[in-house]
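Justification of computing resources. Each target in the renewal requires a structure prediction run like the one illustrated here; the chain below, 474 residues long, is used simply to show the kind of job we budget for.
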Amino acid sequence: MELPLPSPLIFYAIIIIAIPTDSAFSPSLRYPPKTSSNIITKVTTSCDSQNLNITISTAHPFKGVAFARDFAQECKIFGTLSNSFSLSLPTSGCGVRLSSAPGKNNVVRMVYSVSLVLQQDRHLRQISDQEKMVHCELQDDAFLVKSQSLFRALKGEIEAGKQVNHRVGRLMNEGWSKDLNERELEEELKEAMAAARAWMEITPEKRFGQAPADIVEVGETVLLTVKATLPAGIGWRLIDCTAHDGLGDSSQKLLDELGCPVDEALLPTPKFGPIKPIASMRHQEAVAKFAAFKFPDRDRLHLQCRLQICRGSCEKIDCEESRNGTTTENRIGRSNSDKEGEILDRLEVYNSVEVIAPEIDDANEFRKKIQSADFDSYPFPKIPGDRTFCVSVDKMAITFCALGVIFLVAVGVAAGALVSGKRSQNGMQYYTRSLFSSSSGGSAFGSKLLLQESPVFGQSSSSTSNRMQYGRIL
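Resulting structure tokens:
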């Protein structure tokens, strides 16, 4: 008796049963492999008002790419298999942020900061990639107002005052020294120009807890503050403010060339604070409150404005009249020449801040909440038609083993049934032909002969032949 060969699946089931559960799957699926990273050993920086230069030293030759976070394609440098490389970033973009803090002797410390990503491979992000916040403290003269037209205007004021026997003309009541000769006054003027500064800061209005001041959320109230320390007798105002994504690909106008807001909901008219006299200098700040916003493809928001410097004080602009079509002369040296309100120069101030939208694109926080929540407290209802379930590696191996045992039992039962069927067929060999078959020679009496010749009915072949001789048809 021949039995059918078992299916090849039996051997796979036996193998699964024989292999222990702990080794059923590769260890790399159960435990992550060890990663090695090229660590940063030293960071040196140098900066001025235009550029932030960074030099990175690594433990091993670097072959990947380093870039400013959120600017992987635009503000980057490739490694050249050396242990040191340098990256230069413009301070007006690439996510560079300016902040100030009081230093020694009440001197303001100005610091640039940028988040730098060290990607180990040129094309792939890995767990071994590093992110480092880089800082650079500016020198005292980094934000000097270097304006020759401003210097000439102040010098002309002093010379005009001498000619009319007034010590300093219109500047006599502005804090300048009155008992100095012309040479000494010019030296004082140079010292004043060496102390003239202007810069922008972007900070949250109110911040509770330990949240960083350089990260705000969409809709949070933010203060745009422009600070200027200029010589006495000089005024200024903010004009031509623009928000951009750090590269200029996307931008939004906030203040026009006259200093009037384009949209009050984006940025209102800045309000000027009181003037603080410091010897022959005057310090003043302009503040505008606005709700933080961002561009869809960037988390960094860059703001850039122009500082318009005027002789005496700048001309007041009625924004309502300007919207109705009334034009105002706003060109350098063409408006009120040598008079009060003359436009002397324009300077640029800029800064950046990171703006996030947790309810829109903070996927990491969402995943953390889902992982820490119980199934019953899942924030969403069950999705119709979702039949997905998850099992661990150990449970999956046990399940395969149980299925293998069930398969072997089924194969055994099938084999037993097959053997039993073979044995039962040995005692029923005479019933294999149909009782009503007409295949016995094609005779009309074929069925009758078959019934008479069958030994089952207890008749011999001889008696049958005797009876059939009378019923034979010739």
